[in-house]
Amino acid sequence: MRISVIGQGYVGLTIAISAAKSGHEVTGFDNNAVLATCLNSGDSHIEGVASIDLQGAIKAGKYRATANASDIAGSEIVIIAVPTPLDAHRAPDTAFLESACKSIAAHLDAPALIINESTSFPGTVRDLIAPMIEKNAAKKLDHLYAVSPERVDPGNEKWGQKNTPRLYAGLTPEASEKTRAFYSSFCDNLVEVSSPEVAEAAKLFENTFRQVNIALVNEFAQIADAIGISVHETLDAANTKPYGFMRFNPSAGVGGHCIPIDPTYLAEVSERLGVPATFIKRANEVNLAMPHYIVERVARDNGASLKGKSVLVVGVAYKPNVADTRETPAEIVIEALKVQGALVRWHDPVVKAWKDESSQPLAAKGADITVVVTMHDAVNVSDVLASAPYVFDATGKVPGAHGL
Ligand SMILES: NC(=O)c1ccc[n+]([C@@H]2O[C@H](COP(=O)([O-])OP(=O)(O)OC[C@H]3O[C@@H](n4cnc5c(N)ncnc54)[C@H](O)[C@@H]3O)[C@@H](O)[C@H]2O)c1
Fold first, then answer.
1. Quick one: 107 and 256 in the same domain?
2. Strand 190-192 relative to strand 166-170, pairing
3. Are residues 98 and 220 in the same domain?
4. Which of 5, 14, 30, 34 to mutate to test the pocket of ligand 1 (most atoms within 8 A of CB)?
5. Which residues pair with residue 314 across a beta bridge?
6. Nearest-10 Cα torsion for 170, 175, 181, 185
7. For the segment 48-98, what is each residue's pLDDT rounded down to a tens digit?
């Protein structure tokens, strides 16, 4: 089939290459022209989409990236995979979705199946995407609409596009049926739900569940410190219960495009409907405060002042073994250290370059203080311990260091 995928980031490129490998003719449209050129030269920017897969899809004539929206004309299926971030007030920002809808309206010249994979609030397909495309189209086309929220976990080697169960629902039975037929060409396990709203809400609730439990364990880390016990030993002990307990580990906070953001989409709908989303709001507060708590602990252990201290932050990616720095708690840790007067450098062999700075070496005794925010497999524990006389570990992966 002729497929277009709007947005060639983490989600869009992954889906585009999976579809191309299963024989579909795929156009990857991204309004970032530099990215489109890069992709056409076979250079993948996404963990999990190896350049070799991308080059294979290009060589087989099954994939082409473009920055020209008119190239989506003639598609039988259009998948939307654009960012759904928060705005400057930390409220849901649907501007990218709206602009994707306008491109579809302007360039689709025949009825197609339009599937949203971007994470958004319940009602997005029915109340935003379908009306927006219909309102902006030059002529009336009877498109079909569906949602299939993406669950990809960048860097996860066990669960990928093929074996992660995929939720889906169409606005009509015909849309559901065609959505199932498309995804079954490269996904093993498809789960139909009764409405797009259920699929949209399930995706938000999955990430809200993680966000709230991460906040709970982060608060517990602070309680454990006040009691004077090890949070990790206590969690190990709780985890011996064979039922009714699911372990989450404390950290410097949450990052990436999902956990810090998606719950706010649920909270926004909830409050609009008059239900106060108290857990979601409190979890956001606790997780956003965690980097400050870590810097306070580091200051407390170092004579209450970090003024003039040379501090090395290890790991600026938001999670281990990926180069993604979106919403990384390392950014708040670094800012808070600087506010205290510390001279901050960072080391991250996976990210390498970030915010016009480069990763600095993890030299023996190279700093007064080292703060570990994210521990990649490529970083050696003994090198971290040797890097400064005082090492604070927010990850629980550096035995022998001070830490949560
Ligand atoms: N990254 C993840 O792990 C993950 C997992 C599951 C779901 N999601 C969701 O998937 C969606 C996409 O996330 P992502 O991580 O792929 O984002 P991304 O930022 O990696 O990529 C989005 C791409 O869309 C492009 N774009 C933006 N507006 C466009 C437009 N109007 N037309 C064409 N291209 C446009 C951008 O240039 C960018 O390359 C979001 O809703 C996100 O919440 C992400």
1. no
2. parallel
3. no
4. 30
5. 347, 372
6. -70
7. 677 779 999 999 999 999 999 999 999 999 999 999 999 988 889 999 999
What phi, psi does 370 have (nearest 5°)? -120, 135
Same domain, yes or no: 289 and 380: yes
Q: Are residues 169 and 235 in the same domain?
A: no
Which residues, 6 or more positions from 24, have their beta carbon under 8 angstroms from its beta carbon?
Answer: 1, 2, 3, 62, 185
Asked if residue 164 is part of any domain, the answer here is yes
Which tens digits make up the pLDDT trace of 199-248? 999 999 999 999 999 999 999 999 999 999 999 999 999 999 999 999 99
Whether residues 7 and 147 share a domain: the answer is yes
* Centre of ligand 1 from the C-alpha of residue 101, in Å: 14
State the amino acid at position 181 in one-letter form.
A
Q: How many domains does the chain have?
A: 2
218 part of a folded domain: yes
CA of 82 to the centre of ligand 1 (A): 4
Same domain, 236 and 168: no
Residue nearest to ligand 1 atom 18, measured at CA: 9
Is 396's C-beta closer than 6 angstroms to any atom of ligand 1? Answer: no
9 CA distance to ligand 1 middle (Å): 5
Please indicate whether residue 257, judged by its CB atom, sits closer than 6 Å to ligand 1. yes
Give the domain extent around 252: 207-403
Residue that is last in its domain, among 167, 194, 221? 194
DSSP string over 192-226? E-SSHHHHHHHHHHHHHHHHHHHHHHHHHHHHHHH
DSSP state of 242: S
CA–CA gap between residue 256 and residue 153 (Å, rounded): 10
What's the CA gap between 98 and 133, in Å, rounded? Answer: 9
Q: In which residue are the tokens 């281990």 written?
A: 320
Residues 354 and 289 in one domain: yes
